[in-house]
Amino acid sequence: MKIIENPKKEDWSALLQRPTQSIEDIENTVNQIFQDVRQNGDFAVSKYTSMFDGVELEDSVVSNEEIEKATNAIPKELKTAINQAKHNIESFHKAQKTPKVGVETTKGVLCWQEKRPIEKIGLYIPGGTAPLFSTVLMLAVPAQIAGCKDIVLCSPPNKEGNIANEILYAAQLCGVTKIIKVGGIQAIAGLTFGTESIPKVYKIFGPGNQFVTVAKQISTKFGIAIDMPAGPSELLVVADDSANASYMASDLLSQAEHGADSQVILVSDSQKFIDNVSSEIENQLLGLPRKKIAQKALQNSKAFLIENVNEALEFINEYAPEHLIISTSNNAFFVDNIINAGSVFIGNYTPESAGDYASGTNHTLPTNGFSKVYSGVNLDSFTKNMTFQKITKKGLLNIGKTIELMAEAEGLQAHKNAVSIRLKDLEK
Fold it and tell me: What is the reported pLDDT for 128?
């Protein structure tokens, strides 16, 4: 990792650049594929699946037989682990349910708010070098709790034309209603427009590479909602000499192994600690099966020596990491004052991997600085708030004049008349 000492504020923006590809280049590719899928449906989707995934599929929809076969192929111990993770995720997301909120704003004027599920949602589950079956739990569990009617899952097939057994098992466990072997831009396009095999949905969830992230953003131009822009994984660790260097190194590597475009950042007030973490990274790298991927990610990663704790906090908020680990002698300072982060992990015994799999919090989080304005996926992501009002005769008499005056001032006579016609009857 490149070490940078006490960087000047005017240099922060350049130093914290993510390793991203030109958006303009990606947008051109996405627009071409979107247009093709919109016009040619499954034919276009199959063409791109063959082109990008290297497989010709007779049927892209996963059958019940395939799900049963996948379920039987998974070791009992792993099933138990998946079930425990599901339980914890369910517990955390069920706790997010909120009661109906109601208030009588004026005597006789009752207003209330209720949540309703989004009926049709699409879940994108990356395949690639590490099929993320844990993401199925993170998305399908809250969707099921929210009461979403149609839960459509898309995931790219491997060279044999299959989706990972673990993804299929998790999907059926969490009530996914349809599973389709399709990935990348063509999957997002299919969910956006609908094809013969892929249902059109109202909102798309799930992480992916930069192409998937841009495709999701472009889908919003066609009336589709998305969870957030979620691209390559990232982690920032803020730690001092009170932290365990080997633990922090393992956390940094846990994100670096996601992909070559992942980024990990270390912030510390101790040069000695940075050196110890760097040594630990080198040692732990040797035993990793995904060593080459992690090494490429580390080329985009940096360690910052920032001796002023307030400046370190400001630096972290400017970066706005997807994941933030806090392991210092004064964790409370950072916990109380951090503003921009997707999910926060506190102390030596809270590895980021816990949130990825089984603590219960959601791991679908905003990346690329979007935690400044976006939340991670939660139960509310799968619902809408609907407002209701009921006004009695007395209530209308209490607010009617106010409505008339305001409507007339805005030049909207019909608005005024809708109240006046009722008031005349009530005042007889």
Answer: 66
Is position 27 annotated as part of the catalytic site? no
What pLDDT is stored for residue 19 in this prediction?
Answer: 79
Options 234, 257, 280, 322, the catalytic residue: 322
Catalytic residue among 323, 352, 363, 427: 323
Angstrom distance (rounded) from CA 193 to CA 41: 8
Architecture field, domain 2-19+232-360: 3-Layer(aba) Sandwich (3.40)
Domain 392-426, classified CATH 2.60.40.730, yes or no: no
Burial environment of residue 333 by CB neighbours within 10 A (0 to 12, 13 to 18, 19 or more): middle
Binned average pLDDT, 10 residues per bin, the chain of 428 residues:
92 88 85 98 98 95 98 98 98 97 98 98 86 95 99 97 96 98 98 99 93 94 93 93 98 94 96 98 96 94 96 98 98 98 98 98 94 97 98 98 99 98 93
Nearest C-alpha neighbor of 131 from the set 97, 102, 168, 106:
168
66 is catalytic: no
Under CATH, which number does the domain 23-99+118-227 receive? 3.40.50.1980
Per the listing, tokens 């063409």 go with: 47
Domain range list for the chain? 2-19+232-360, 23-99+118-227, 392-426
